[in-house]
Amino acid sequence: METDVVVIGGGVTGCGVAWDLALRGANVTLIEMGDVGTGTSGRYHGLLHTGSRYVASDLTSARECYGEHTTIRRVAPHVLDDTGGIFVLSPSDEESFVEAWTAGCKAAGIPVEDIGPAEALRREPLLHPDTRAAFEVPDAACNSFELCATLRRSAESLGARFLTYHRVESFQEEDGRVRGVNATDLRTGETVEVRCQAVVNAAGPWAGEVGKKAGAGFGMVLSRGAMLAFNGRWTGAILSRLRPPGDGDIFVPLGPTGVAGTTSVPTDDPGDTRIEDWERERILSETEAFLPGVRQARILRSWAGVRPLYDPGTQSDSAEGTHVDNRKAARTFDVLDHAERDGVEGLVSIVGGKLTTFRLMAEKTSDKIGEKLGVDKPCLTAKTEMLAR
Ligand SMILES: Cc1cc2nc3c(=O)[nH]c(=O)nc-3n(C[C@H](O)[C@H](O)[C@H](O)COP(=O)(O)OP(=O)(O)OC[C@H]3O[C@@H](n4cnc5c(N)ncnc54)[C@H](O)[C@@H]3O)c2cc1C
């Protein structure tokens, strides 16, 4: 099989790269070992962030999120549920955080309205009756499965090929240059060879392992988080606590459920989707602080995902799976050109980021691939509406 670019990974990042490159006229083949959206992208909390959660800790990420939030509203409105968001100061939260948070939102350009506790309780009767402050932001819930399917549909309509249930096992290299990949069709056991001019490693938490197969390994800061989905939405808006990011401080009305989460547990295993008893208990007790009574509700299901964070500031090149305070690891992203880093021409990895910033991550990655292929076509994804159906 021949193609211009192989994209490894069918999460939101890889699907976004496939869509971007296809819009620029490249012939793309995406290879995914499961179905699209079955990695972290199908195991997330459900927010298209405005960035307001990060304003006090990571202003760059907050600005990136807000810019992308407004773009995704334009190009893929059908994957969103425009719930809005309310940040609340619970009885046990520190009042001093409010000033830093509102100043951060202002600096990031995120619109915030002080609606006060009485209005918040009128809109959200299940909120803690002693809520001390409440601010409205334009957060939205996002159906990530529909987003991945939409990106796939949009890319395929431009000729992209998606090989799902195929796992990339090794790279084909000639003269220090990546020239293709060898994948296993997991349903038949057959080996499939795909020749190409460049490869994008968009394997999320598996990106370090995939890079290693080409002799271009790097460390990820993997962080596992758990979510609990309750029977019923419980709230109209997404609720977040006014405090530095911590466990169990966001509640998202998602489809017919309300989803509480999350946790942040260091792990070395990208497939580590365990939920420990203390995580379930921590989420329940922290959510109870702003939504009292939630502990009595029926939990329909729970899941966990692994954040594919990358923060070179917290690790050395050889420190795979370094244990750091994962909540402090940057939520921004990096495009790694392995020609510059490791002497492996033709391989680019995209690491870090968030679901909210996938489009920008895909744009920067595709720019780099364009440079490598000598193709100077501009990115069109910020102004091209995705195919809804
Ligand atoms: C608990 C939690 C909550 C989160 N909440 C939010 C949120 O509310 N809002 C937000 O914006 N972000 C959130 N995030 C972050 C967001 O989910 C991720 O940043 C994003 O989904 C990563 O997408 P990805 O495509 O990079 O990775 P993935 O979705 O993991 O995709 C990588 C894909 O690569 C495939 N793959 C790996 N190795 C191979 C191989 N050898 N061959 C073929 N395929 C391979 C995997 O099967 C996988 O499907 C959350 C993350 C977690 C863990």
What does this entry look like structurally?
The protein is of the alpha+beta class. The chain has two domains: 5-41 and 145-218 and 329-373, FAD/NAD(P)-binding domain, CATH 3.50.50; 82-138 and 221-309, D-Amino Acid Oxidase, Chain A, domain 2, CATH 3.30.9.10. The chain has nine helices and 21 strands. Helix 1 packs across helix 9. The radius of gyration is 21 Å and the shape is elongated. The site of flavin-adenine dinucleotide has 38 residues, from helix 1, strand 2, strand 10 and strand 19.
Question: Which structural traits does this protein have?
Answer:
alpha+beta, six-stranded mixed sheet, 2 domains, D-Amino Acid Oxidase, Chain A, domain 2, elongated, nine-stranded mixed sheet, binds flavin-adenine dinucleotide, 28% strand, FAD/NAD(P)-binding domain, 9 helices, single chain, 389 residues
Q: From the 3D coordinates, which CATH architecture of the largest domain would you assign?
A: 3-Layer(bba) Sandwich
How much β-strand is present in the residues? 25-35%
What gap, in angstroms, lies between the N and C termini? 29 Å
The 3D shape can be described as elongated
How would you name the CATH homologous superfamily of the largest domain? FAD/NAD(P)-binding domain
Q: What series of H and E elements makes up the topology? A: EHEEHEEHEHEEHEEEEEHEEEEEHEEHEH
- Whole-number tally of structural domains: 2
Q: What is the mean pLDDT?
A: 94
The CATH class name of the largest domain reads Alpha Beta
C-alpha-based Rg, rounded: 21 Å
- Biggest sheet character: 9 strands, mixed
How many beta-strand segments? 21
Number of helices, counting only DSSP H or I runs of 4 residues or more: 9
Taking pLDDT < 50 over at least 5 consecutive residues as the criterion, the unreliable ranges are: 315-325
Structural class: alpha+beta
What is the helix fraction of residues, given as a range? Answer: 25-40%
User: What small-molecule ligands were found?
Assistant: flavin-adenine dinucleotide
